[in-house]
Amino acid sequence: MQKPSLPKGTRDFSPEEVQKREYIINILKKHFSTYSFHPIETPSFENLSTLTGKYGEEGDRLIFKILNSGDFLKKVKPEDLEANPASVTTKVSDKALRYDLTVPFARYVVQHQNEINFPFRRYQIQPVWRADRPQKGRFREFYQCDADIVGSTSLWQEIELIQLYDACYTELGLGTEIHINNRKVLSGLAEVANIQDQLIDFTVALDKLDKIGREKVIEEMQQKGISEDAIAKLSPVFDINGSFAEQTEALKEVLSTSEIGLEGIDELNFINENLVGLNSADLVLNLTLARGLEYYTGSILEVKAKGVEMGSIGGGGRYNDLTGIFGLKNMPGVGVSFGLDRTYLVLEELGLFPDFDDSKVKILFINFGENEARESIKLVQKLRGSGIQSELYPDNAKLKKQFSYGDKGGFTHVVMIGGDEIENQTLSLKDLKTGDQQTIEQGKLVDFINGLS
In the sheet where 426-431 sits, what is the strand order? Predict the structure, then answer.
């Protein structure tokens, strides 16, 4: 007999867990709509060529490739497979599960450009897959909730997306730090250190500063071939601190010879100076924030929850040339992603989920037999028609078993209709919390229950 199991990095969700996830999603959808974002969906898998080369070397390794179906391998000669397995594998796999929602969105924009009204504001809530090592808050299958704007280079859009983060997490009761940096600043630092061709190696190492510390970051840069002279020129970045304005002012000195670096500083200052109306979020300038993705060209954002040890629960940035990889030039874009699973874990750890069952009336009808069930089901349908959750126990089981089902199922009341009640057109209604029981007319049940809500 086979023992049931799940693939590593995936999960089943109980009714309670689904309810909590939907609570988060509904709040996100509400604010996405308020901010004038429109919903779209894309397939769970894309052509492999659509995804590869878009996420950097580390990201490409985490793409889940899909083997072609059918008897493909039966047509491959064993000697060919042994001699050149890579070429055979390439033919076997030409599709992949989507790694994120941004690249499929870019593909969507290019394919539907003649139907879209630009600037186009879209949101998308769907699962993605990554062949990552599972750990707390990191899964191989998880949902992303994205909001993107394409068709404008305006920095007011970055400001709006920061406000969107704040609005969503404020309603969820979660205080956040929204970390911001700019890829132009990182490019400027690479230019000052004369390591432009090693920008990705530099940013991937720098992004780990909070996790592994300065010495380990320098060690990783050295292992990637970044010279001691370059590291020395970049070392002031490790020590810059103070307020947002103080940090950007200090950074100007380091980047004084880099035009693109100074442009990045100007963009950061514009966002900081014009950002208003935050409720529970703090904007934090984080010069080590690098996010090792190749498609960001301007602002980089990452959201961290206050009061809990957890990685980022959201992130995003500007990608002004992403659609260019699919042949559509000069289509600027900026977007953010909400990590549903990590947000769930944070809300759970901090006890921020509401009590969903306490405010809802839920009625269980006891089954005394076929005649009684026939009368009960009529009232069940009337209650459901009025939006009241109700259920008829399916079997004429012992009362103890039926009441136990009611207790475990979170029912607030039990309705009992026996022979006498059928004759008198009444019913007995028992409150499972207080134990109080009363007789009421069947025709008045809906109004009575509505009065309890």
Answer: 389-392, 362-365, 413-416, 426-431, 437-441
User: Which strands sit side by side in the sheet containing 141-150, from one edge to the other?
Assistant: 38-39, 120-129, 141-150, 333-339, 314-318, 299-305, 176-182, 281-285
Q: What angle do CA 104, 105, 110 make, to 5 degrees?
A: 100
Cα–Cα distance for residue pair 158/178, rounded to 1 Å: 12
* 3-class secondary structure, 221: helix
Q: How far is CA 115 from the centre of its chain?
A: 27
CB atoms within 10 A of CB 327: 8
Distance (Å, whole) CA 323 – CA 228: 37
The position carrying tokens 């990608």 is: 319
User: 259-274 and 244-254 helices cross at what angle (nearest 10)?
Assistant: 170
Are 240 and 287 a contacting pair, CB within 8 Å? yes
Helix (H/G/I), strand (E/B), else coil: 2: coil
SS3 151: coil
Q: What is the pLDDT of residues 62-118, one digit of tens each?
A: 999 998 765 655 666 666 656 665 555 556 678 999 999 989 999 999 999 999 999
Work out the burial of residue 305: count CB atoms within 10 Å of its CB; fewer than 13 is exposed, 13-18 middle, 19 or more buried.
buried
Distance CA 286, CA 321 (A): 24
Its pTM stands at 0.86
| Secondary structure class of 47 (helix, strand, coil) | strand
Q: In 51-132, at which residue ranges do the beta strands (DSSP E only) sit?
A: 65-66, 95-97, 120-129
**CA gap 427, 441 in Å, rounded:** 6
Residue 374 has pLDDT above 80, yes or no: yes
Question: Position 184: which residue type?
Answer: K
List Cα–Cα distances, 249 to 244, 245, 255, 256, 297, in angstroms: 9, 6, 10, 11, 22
Question: Is residue 366 a contact partner of residue 402, using CB atoms and an 8 Å limit?
Answer: yes
